[in-house]
Amino acid sequence: MKEVFDKIHALEELSGYSKHERLVQGFINAIDEKLLRQGDLLPSVNIMIKETGFARETIVKGYKELIDRGIVESKNRMGYFVSSENTNQKLTVALILYAFDSVQETFYNAFRAALTTDVHIDIYFHNHNIEIFETLINKVVGRYGMYVVAPMPHSKTSEILKVLPLNKLLMIDRFEQLEGDFSYIVQEFEKSTYQVLTKLNDTIKHFDELVFFSRPDSDAPKEILESFKRYVSDKKIVHSVKTRYVAGSVEKGKVYFSTNDTQTWMLLKDCKERGFILGKDVGVLSQDDDPIKEIICDGITTYSTDFVLMAKKAANFVLSQEKIKEIVPTVLIRRKSL
């Protein structure tokens, strides 16, 4: 380790370097010259104070910058370790999403495009599984400069997220209450669903029944079902709630409302096979918009938040680290199916 300290001390001869900058650059030089390798344990703060003569605050600040850049990671009660030999990156981000689907892909592509090239992103998926979610959070804590997380609704979520530094956390997509002050860019489900159904009310009333697919174990927000129930009660709409779409069961005169794309594709396939005309024989409303729904069957009516806008705002938070608390509006996109 003496050679590493030599790298830090060597920078004393260069003008314009603060103690903080000498510490950070000294470690970077040691890594670039292979004096330190990924997984190596770094000196404790107390040892660094003794060997460099720097103040504790300077050492802690230096390690923090190296962590933010993804070069160093902090392991609880174990110390600081080299986590990457890529010293060119300026900031690393842990991006934790639900699953790899078209919506999440849209968010990621816009998020990546809005960031500078020296920001490194590692992407993880929890697949709506609370055990996987907890494992991922415990895996990334202390290893990244920023944490952008799409949480899942669960009684354990707030406790799991407590290990992350709130000033480095951005909650996206769905809102889960946490203790303390944190940033979020999310969508809203209850009021927006009711408003969308109300806007479509005159069209829905031309059909015999409104059918909503909602599984009890679904990852879909529960607020959507509650809004559906309130709408059909207020407007006296003939309706039914089914746990899933059964292949071949599509009927004329009904509007089908689904938050699950797999159910929607099955329904559309059956409509095509039976020659049903969307918007006339059968109505279809889908949650979350993407380019496929704009094209398929001459257009599917959707209501959706703007995931590209959400991604751009998330990227701005990562770059500026300015606190944000925002709900991205949900909009109705009317097409041929309803």
From TrEMBL:
Database matches in PROSITE patterns: HTH_GNTR
Keywords: DNA-binding, Transcription, Transcription regulation
A GO molecular function held by the record: DNA binding
Pfam hit, one: Peripla_BP_3
Ranges where the HTH gntR-type domain occurs: 17-85
CDD domains named among the record's database cross-references: WHTH_GntR (cd07377)
Matching SMART domains: HTH_GNTR
Name the record gives this protein: Transcriptional regulator
Protein species of origin: Solitalea canadensis (strain ATCC 29591 / DSM 3403 / JCM 21819 / LMG 8368 / NBRC 15130 / NCIMB 12057 / USAM 9D) (Flexibacter canadensis)
